[in-house]
Design brief:
alpha/beta; 5-stranded mixed sheet
Length: 226
């Protein structure tokens, strides 16, 4: 158990972690630690560090937990360093090494502009999609992009929270085609990377099923007050 004035935070690194929240919370409680998420979960690492700071904690040890396709471990130190720059009075430690606040920043000239992508592929990582294999779908997409020699300027891939047609999980969406696919397998995901979308409706086992989406009815704008 942590000593008085100190705390241990288990930091979930990947998007897969949010669907294991109850089990992770139980592990944290059993070890006297608290839980935070680097992405797609709550509380975020910054929020949990803020809470501990408000409670008077002066030393925090961060333990990265990798589940599924985890974010690079360097991001744990970068995010912690970003927080510590405004809280130098709190000692933060990762893998027995102090976080100094001099770590690489969260910003970079390489991340200033929106990539000039031709297509934007969204992979749902909500709890139902994750439970039904969206992690394998994402891995297949990444693998196929590498195999085809495609980069962000060709297909920009983004993991999202819940995209709502949960009964169709795993769900993948491609823009600007406005093409929604349900029940996507890893093999079908490879086809989505390189093929233009076909018509909505049933498909063969190797072809992803494109979902029908009815455009929302446009409502008349409310009159402006005079």
């Amino acid at each position: 158990m942590p000593e008085q004035g100190s705390a241990v935070v288990l930091v979930v690194m990947g998007a897969e972690g949010a669907r294991h929240a109850p089990e992770l919370a139980a592990v944290a409680a059993a070890t006297g630690a608290s839980l935070a998420y680097l992405q797609q979960g709550s509380p975020s690492l910054a929020e949990e560090l803020d809470r501990l700071h408000a409670d008077g904690v002066t030393r925090v040890e961060l333990v990265g937990i990798a589940l599924g396709a985890a974010t690079a471990r360097s991001w744990l130190r970068r995010v912690a360093g970003h927080w510590r720059r405004t809280h130098p009075e709190v000692e933060v430690v990762i893998d027995k090494r102090a976080v100094t606040g001099t770590e690489a920043a969260l910003t970079s000239p390489a991340w200033e502009e929106v990539p000039g992508h031709a297509r934007h592929l969204l992979v749902c990582r909500g709890p139902r999609c994750s439970a039904r294999g969206s992690g394998a779908v994402l891995a297949a997409v990444d693998d196929e992009l590498r195999r085809q020699g495609l980069g962000d300027d060709d297909v920009l891939v983004t993991q999202t929270g819940c995209l709502f047609p949960c009964n169709q999980a795993p769900v993948v969406v491609v823009h600007p085609d406005d093409a929604w696919y349900g029940g996507v397998t890893a093999e079908q995901a490879r086809a989505i990377v390189v093929d233009r979308p076909g018509p909505a409706g049933p498909a063969g086992p190797a072809e992803p099923v494109r979902l029908r989406r009815e455009p929302a009815a446009r409502s008349s704008p409310a009159p402006r007050p005079r």
